[in-house]
Amino acid sequence: xxxxxxxxxxxxxxxxxxxxxxxxTVSDSNLLPVNRASRLSFTDMDRNPGELGGxxxxxxxxxxxxxxxxxxxxxxxxxxxxxxxAEIQKTGSDLTFSISENTAISPGVGFxxxxxxxxxxxxxxxxxMEIEDIAFFSVFEIQDLSSPxxxxxxxxxxxDEVIVTAIxxxxxxxxxxxxxxxxxxxxxFIYNPGVNIGSLTVGNTITIKGEYKxxxxxxxxxxxxxxxxxxxxxxxxxxxxxxxxVATGGINAEKYEGxxxxxxTVAVIDANPEDPLDExxxxxxxxxxxxxxxxxxxxxxxxxxxxxxxxxxxxxxxxSSASGSHSKLLPRSESDVVK
Length: 339
What we know:
Layout: H1 2-19, E1 39-42, E2 51-59, E3 69-75, E4 81-89, E5 95-104, E6 111-118, E7 121-122, E8 127-130, E9 135-136, H2 139-143, E10 156-168, E11 172-176, E12 187-191, E13 205-215, E14 218-230, E15 239-240, H3 243-246, E16 260-270, E17 282-284, E18 288-290, E19 306-317, E20 326-330, E21 337-338
Parallel strand pairs: 9-10, 12-14, 15-16, 18-20
Antiparallel strand pairs: 1-2, 2-5, 3-4, 3-6, 6-7, 6-8, 10-11, 10-13, 11-12, 13-14, 16-17, 16-19, 17-18, 19-20, 19-21
């Protein structure tokens, strides 16, 4: 009897294993999806900081057989959901969802999240991407503090199709708006903290992304990304200026910071304005300083030396000496200095 009872119990047990218990049947329709979107991308086309606009691209899962679509969320981080943006049904192809221009980024939100979903719910692990709030600005808007579109410091900016006017090794360079040569506020310094600038040359037309900063009074962009739009050598005609107007404290010194300018018929009035230090700079008519940051004039100019013209980038630099910070002209090569 014991043997027969054990046989019956074992038969029932095996039957439950292979056929399942009627009260706890699990079918495929009760399983959450396990296949995720293959990619997620977005480029912000809205020019305003704190706002987004553009198309979100969602790459379909490699296998969509266990899902019906995708939930698109704002994300607090790469896993935690904020508000639902949209439920998007699968189509068998990659998907696109449009974010309307001027869509405000809610406080605390920094990601887009995509969760695969089906009738049983959504999967636990999303595909995520950090939101990059890029604002489009002209150099004019960045340099002119009075512009209504002037960005706040530390804003991520994109500047489209500007011309390279000078390069300092692999460390930094200057760009200028091409539309109106010599226009006030048209040039700016680009600091390169590590981006490979490759074959960048003066005259290239480029688009840049970076962070707007003020460094000891000098407006600059800390470079994050660079695209050479045209590798040709476009020409920026230097603007002829009065040295008195662009020297330290001059009425146009701020307006033409970062701009390619030219001074004409000047003479050396101080061969070493930083004496007793030797900073390889000298001062010409109306107290404009000429610096060697891009090119060293050799031999060193002496008092009463004259120049027919000097062309270069007007900049503003901090010095550690007691004389403080100054506007300075930076000739770029021998051809910029005409005796």
